[in-house]
Specification:
Layout (H helix, E strand, L loop, with lengths): L28 E2 L12 E3 L6 E7 L4 H19 L4 E7 L6 H11 L4 H10 L1 H9 L3 H10 L6 H8 L2 H13 L10 E4 L2 E4 L6 H14 L3
Parallel strand pairs: 3-4
Antiparallel strand pairs: 1-6, 2-4, 3-5, 5-6
Helix pairs in contact: 1-8, 2-3, 2-5, 4-5
InterPro entries: TAT_signal, Thioredoxin-like_fold, Thioredoxin-like_sf, Thioredoxin_domain
Pfam family, one: Thioredoxin_4
Family: Belongs to the thioredoxin family. DsbA subfamily.
């Protein structure tokens, strides 16, 4: 199946929608199982021994994920991750056609560049969506990849066909089952599931993280 097919176009995606993608907006629920963030399936920022672990499951083409990345994540980074209070773990949860190739570009760039590429995927979200709709997704992602060391078309094609990275992404995706993740963004704070409706402002996120820190004795 051609991952750059027009059939993967995101016809239903609204650039203005802030509802969680594919999510019901249900209230916080306890985790249905335990997934060890210590095994670090995903991409990590912050102190490995932080008392609180915040996991985000996200899609690069989800408008709610972009909103959280642009408006809320900087507060989490400066007030909690940089201060050593919170370890942040980002996990791929592809839900739209362009998500897998977009995430592969970030993974192929290397762990040290992963979040730099992720920043661009969210920055150019609308362009990625439009390029998928117009059948030119490969060219769009190649341009992003070239800025992060994936220079030639051969390098890009090898990245897209990297079975090991695809299996790694699949392993990360499967961890979501333990938490009942059905949409993006979904957040896990020390094992407790938080839907986007409860994490859609800096004030709500701050309150949730402060409560987790207090519960951890911090």
């Amino acid at each position: 199946m051609n991952i750059f097919s027009r059939r993967t176009a995101l016809a239903a995606l609204s650039a203005l929608a802030l509802a969680a993608c594919g999510d019901s907006g249900a209230a916080n629920t306890p985790a249905g199982g335990t997934v060890s963030a210590g095994s670090e399936l995903g991409h990590v920022k912050g102190n490995a021994d932080a008392p609180v672990t915040l996991i985000e499951y996200a899609s690069p083409t989800c408008p709610a994920c972009k909103y959280w990345h642009d408006d809320i994540s900087p507060v989490v980074q400066s007030d909690y991750v940089d201060t050593g209070k919170v370890k942040f773990v980002f996990r791929e949860y592809p839900i739209h056609g362009p998500d897998v190739p977009a995430y592969l570009v970030a993974m192929c760039a290397g762990e040290d560049k992963y979040f730099d590429v992720l920043d661009e995927l969210f920055e150019y979200q609308s362009g990625i969506v439009e390029s998928a709709q117009n059948g030119v997704l490969k060219a769009m992602l190649q341009t992003i990849g070239q800025r992060h060391g994936i220079e030639s078309e051969a390098d890009f094609d090898a990245c897209m066909n990297n079975r090991e990275l695809r299996e790694q992404m699949a392993d990360v995706y499967q961890t979501a089952e333990a938490y009942g993740v059905t949409g993006t963004p979904t957040f896990i704070i020390n094992g407790e599931v938080h839907q986007f409706a409860n994490m859609n402002s800096a004030e709500k996120v701050t309150a949730a993280l402060d409560a987790a820190l207090e519960a951890a004795g911090e």
